[in-house]
Amino acid sequence: MKKVFLTLIFALIVGLTSSCATIVRESTQNVPIKSNIDKVDIRIINKSGKIVFEGQTPTVLTLNAAEKSGYFNPAKYTVIASKNGFKTQQTIIDWHVSGWYLIGNLVFGGIIGYLLVDPISGDMYYLDKEVNLNMSPN
Q: Binning pLDDT at 50, 70 and 90, where does residue 44 land?
């Protein structure tokens, strides 16, 4: 009986100190970057202005959906695409709030999930699922 009671207490503590998005999501995500022409040079810059990737399309990047430097601090990335004979293009890889954060915390995480665990872990955010660059000639 004591083991059952301790197991229930442990499960209750784990349930109250966890949150839904953190349970089912990771803060990193693979983002495919494609273009309508081959081998477009791309640079990915985070919202702090740091270049986090330089390369060519097509590629798949693993990006962090939350800046680890703050509370409720989602990531945002700028993609700068260029190729000789084509106009330079700039687009944003933007963040969105996960449905697991919004709905799942009603069941699993509660107020602790909404205000503490998911915002600190960054698992409440996800990024655009892919980037499609449509390069146009000069």
A: very high
Does the N-terminal peptide bond of residue 58 adopt cis geometry, omega within 30 degrees of 0? yes
Burial of 56 (0-12, 13-18, 19+ CB in 10 A): middle
- Cβ neighbours of residue 125 under 8 Å, at least 6 residues apart? 27, 65, 66, 74, 75, 95, 96, 97, 98
Residue in 121, 78, 77 with CA at minimum distance from that of residue 101: 121
Domain limits, the chain: 2-133
Tell the CATH topology of 2-133: Immunoglobulin-like (2.60.40)
pLDDT at 85 over 70: yes
Confidence band of 19 (pLDDT split at 50, 70, 90) = very low
Q: Please give the residue that has the higher pLDDT: either 99 or 51.
A: 51
Helix (H) or strand (E) holding 107: helix 105-107
